């Protein structure tokens, strides 16, 4: 059985590092893994999307609408943009942060209100957190990706130690402590 994880965010938020770590965890457990990155206007704060698929045999790196088991969103509006890719019984793990897209910055649009509440009202399960605050408390605003990865890990039923080892093997030495703390705090925040 193939599991599908869609990671969405805004350029510069660390979505690609999160997908790299996720792919390494699954590969280390002998799953067939396909990771596909769609960059968009990532360098200008535009959408960044990564597909992570793993299982016994994965034939395509692409996740179609209605196929994602988990949607990890680094920003609320991105959750709304990609919610149609979620399976009926899928879950959204999201940061509650709002990052204004260019039309809002230019005054041509308004940031939608109550995004997460509207999604939840359709019956979709959402696990949300102030990931930026958690990351800052762990030592760096750049660790939002580790907070969300920790939250997602709780639902992937893979031993926490496997995740921590992969993070240690992947991130620079000077950021290990912060990344481990951010991941662990996210893992605990996810509940279950």
Q: How large a portion of the residues is in β-strands, by DSSP E? A: 15-25%
Q: Provide the CATH topology.
A: Pyruvate-ferredoxin Oxidoreductase, domain 3
Residue ranges: pLDDT <50 for 5 or more in a row?
none
CATH architecture: 3-Layer(aba) Sandwich
- Give a short account of the largest sheet: 6 strands, mixed
Q: What is the arithmetic mean of pLDDT? A: 92
State the fourth-level CATH superfamily. Pyruvate-ferredoxin oxidoreductase, PFOR, domain III
CATH class: Alpha Beta
Strand order of the largest sheet: 2-3-1-4-5-6
Report the helical percentage.
Answer: 40-55%
Instruction: Provide the number of structural domains.
Output: 1
* DSSP strand count: 6
Order of helices and strands: EHEEEHEHHEHHHH
Q: Provide the gyration radius in Å.
A: 16 Å
Termini separation comes to 23 Å
* SS-derived structural category: alpha/beta
Q: DSSP helix count? A: 8
Instruction: Name the overall outline.
Output: globular
Quick gist of this model?
The chain has 192 residues and is α/β, with parallel strands linked by helices. It has a single domain (3-189), classed as Pyruvate-ferredoxin Oxidoreductase, domain 3 (3-Layer(aba) Sandwich), CATH 3.40.920.10.
Written account of the structure:
The structure is a single chain. This protein has a single domain (3-189), classed as Pyruvate-ferredoxin Oxidoreductase, domain 3 (3-Layer(aba) Sandwich). Helix content is 40%, strand content 23%. It is built from eight helices and six strands. Strands 2-3-1-4-5-6 form a six-stranded mixed sheet, sandwiched between helices. The two termini are 23 Å apart. The model has no long low-confidence stretch (mean pLDDT 92).
